[in-house]
Amino acid sequence: MRKQLLTFRLLTAVGQLGLLSAGNWLGFAVDKSWVWWVPLVYLLLVMVSYFWLPRHALSKWQLLLDLAVWIAFFALLNGISNPLIWCLMLPILLAGLSQSIGFTWLMALLSNLSYVLLWFITPKSADAIHAGHEPFNAHVIGMWVGFVLISLLISYITTRLMQVIHRKNRQLVAIEQQRAEDQHIMTMATMATGLAHELGTPLNSIRLLANELMTAGVSEKTRHDDLTEIDAQVTRCQSTIREMVELASDSDYLNSRITDLRSLLHDLIKRFKQSHPDISVSIHAQEQQVASDALLELALLNVLNNSVAAKADHINIAAETRDNHIQLKISDNGLGQSVHQSEGLGIGLKLSRRILRSAGGGLDLTTHQHGAEVLVTLARVES
């Protein structure tokens, strides 16, 4: 707004110089050569105030300066008989767009008082006849009444308009804050779901080893091996939790980036195999660019973990390009239609669908007797 007001004031100074140049054509004579100093001094004051005064001291004082310059301009050029007297409304309009309601109405009052002041200092002639044979004073009175009504109307409309705009802006800020909070909650829920899947395998291993240790007649070597494995699985759980905490505290965690789809899938499978080394995964994808972030990676990881929860031992990932989207077909040989009998966590798939939809993609699940097929839609980025 500050730069826009500077541009407006520069145009005002240039416009006043143009009006002085075209004074005879517009109906007022410029018989005082030093009148040209008004826009020149105004231009100098605008530049000085913009570059040397503090920002908080600019707006209101410059609006008062604008009004003072217009008063001086018309006082030297026929006063209220100048056909451009309506320019006194410009400071009111600027005040309505950039200042408070109270200051806008103050500018309206000052502009109207300025009009009255110009009325008293305008040279009068009892014999002055306006074009169309109307008494000059009657015409001037009509101009003044119109000025008062229009200035009040401008003040009312601009203040009401800015009230609506400010209210809408506050609503947009509130919506954006709510969206950020929802995004954060969704992130934490997705991370929690991923954490549950990541911890599921080591916790199951710890439970089996603990049951074995409680069995009578366990040899010392077996006991030592089981305790070593339990310690390794506990370390694995701690590493998973630490990784999640680091991701949650990373300010760049949700920043989107452009990456190659095949590289993304290979990195994802490498991370997946750390928790599920016995699951075989095959990838069929070409080099193509996609927009990726940590949430998308968690969503895809949840899909893979869902296959593990369905007792699958092989997962196949195939990518196809469809118009402006990329479709990932993730199929497994798990329980499929009987998955409800397993201990799978369905909330991970629901969160993945929500994440992909918010990113302009989608997720569809189809189950059959010999497994399931998940169709993931991603936004494609042109190379």
Spatial shape: rod-shaped
Count of individual domains: 2
Cα Rg: 38 Å
Give the termini distance in whole angstroms: 37 Å
- Helix and strand content put the structural class at alpha+beta
- Helical residue percent? 55-70%
Explained architecture:
- This protein has helices at 2-21, 23-26, 37-52, 59-75, 90-98, 101-121, 136-213, 220-249, 261-275, 294-309, 347-358, and strands at 129-130, 134-135, 257-260, 280-284, 289-292, 314-322, 325-332, 362-368, 371-381.
- The strands form two sheets. Strands 3, 4, 5, 6, 7, 8 and 9 form a seven-stranded mixed beta sheet that branches. Strands 1-2 form a two-stranded antiparallel ribbon.
- α4 (59-75) runs antiparallel to α5 (90-98), α4 runs parallel beside α6 (101-121) and α7 (136-213) packs parallel to α10 (294-309).
- Helix content is 62%, strand content 14%.
- It has two domains: 2-123 and 131-176, no CATH class; 255-383, Histidine kinase-like ATPase, C-terminal domain (Heat Shock Protein 90), CATH 3.30.565.10.
- Mean pLDDT is 76; it is low at 126-133 and 341-345.
- The two termini are 37 Å apart.
- The protein is an alpha+beta fold and 383 residues long.
Topology:
Layout: H1 2-21, H2 23-26, H3 37-52, H4 59-75, H5 90-98, H6 101-121, E1 129-130, E2 134-135, H7 136-213, H8 220-249, E3 257-260, H9 261-275, E4 280-284, E5 289-292, H10 294-309, E6 314-322, E7 325-332, H11 347-358, E8 362-368, E9 371-381
Parallel strand pairs: 4-6
Antiparallel strand pairs: 1-2, 3-5, 5-9, 6-7, 7-9, 8-9
Helix pairs in contact: 1-3, 3-4, 4-5, 4-6, 5-6, 5-7, 6-7, 7-8, 7-10, 7-11, 9-10, 10-11
